[in-house]
Amino acid sequence: MDKLYGLSHLFMAVFLHNFSMFMVVPAITDVTMAALCPGQDECSLAIYITGFQQAMIGLGTLVMMPLLGNLSDKYGRKAILTVPMILTIIPVGILAYSRTKKFFYVYYVFKILISMICEGSVPCLGLAYVADNIPESGRSTAFGILSGIASAAFVCGTLSARFLSTALTFQVSTLIAVIGALYMQFFLRDSAIDDKHLYTPIISQENPIISKVNGKLESKKHLFKALRSIEDLTSFLNSSLTITQAAIVAFFNSLADVGLHGSLLYFLKAQFHFDKNQFADLMVISGIAGTVSQLILMPILAPILGEARLLSVGLFFHCIHMFLYSIAWSSLVPYASAMFSILFVFSHPCIRSIVSKQAGPHEQGKAQGCISGICSIAHIVSPLVFSPLTALFLSERAPFDFPGFSIMCIGFASMISLVQSMMLRVVPPILN
């Protein structure tokens, strides 16, 4: 418990960052539709450019996540975490200033470029920070708590969006993002393990002293080694059967998550005429259920069932959740489906905990970054497959009348991750 208390500043920094980012999610669909297709409830252009955005972000993060994770092993979690905490302020700041068509495209370009570097890096580095400070026996609980903090921020952010105007939503989001970056800079201490083993601080007033023998050449050697993102990714995935299986589960789970994120809101808007307020209500239900589950249920169930079984439980209800969305016959069905998050939110922290225990104490950034890189491949593939499918079945050109067909296909991707998780065998690293 004392170790978890020592992570309080990390939890607060992650909470503020996620609070800011999630606050704008319910509003961004309406802003996009208003900028591109004003007065319409169905807009193929909006679906396609959202899919393109996701694919480009996935392409960037495929390279950047292993790189940032590796750099954080060398230079410290806090130094690398500063980059996404600051850069992500820019896109929401643009829409805080104006949401006209011209400014929307400016936002769109900055969002892609910055997210190619930063998307997913805060939770990835946060997990590595937790792994630095928590022993293996308590990591699944600690990872669940970190995910619960993110879910709590999701609830607070979407509740705020529910009661704020669109303009004020982006302005408040920008302010909170600035506060989060400042809070982390002033209060968060670097991982204790990093203080002992860092090769050099990334920003220093003195010349780096790496070792008495090699001096600056050794510093450059480690930097170049950290830059071999793709090589690190492939070697890490091949280092263990458990890691390979976990990576497959993570890929198909992310494929489903990204597909649902890119398609669901447009489906609900076209099918049931949902707007920002209904989106926020739906997200609040899902967020509250997920927060309760991760903060209360997961610490109880993880030691009893084990991470592998709990992972399968979460993925099973993830499939049910998506299939229920796909056949929604009433506007009330999405609200019922959102309640399943109380059971399917286990999957993400369980995957991360399994992978964390397969890596050494000085490779946690690399491990989490490589898994995030695998998830980034799903960010590339998913929009290419599901965005055209969603646009087709929400248009008048649909081959048959089943608007939720793309959501059902996304559910099949989740089912593949479920099947793979049931074959997952978690063994100690020494046995691999």
From TrEMBL:
GO CC terms of this entry: membrane
One Pfam family here: MFS_1
Subcellular location: Membrane
Molecular function via GO: transmembrane transporter activity
Keywords: Membrane, Transmembrane, Transmembrane helix, Transport
Record-linked InterPro entries: MFS, MFS_dom, MFS_trans_sf
Transmembrane helix found in the keyword field: yes
Protein name as it appears in the record: Hippocampus abundant transcript-like protein 1
Organism: Glycine soja
Lineage, uppermost ranks: Eukaryota, Viridiplantae, Streptophyta, Embryophyta, Tracheophyta
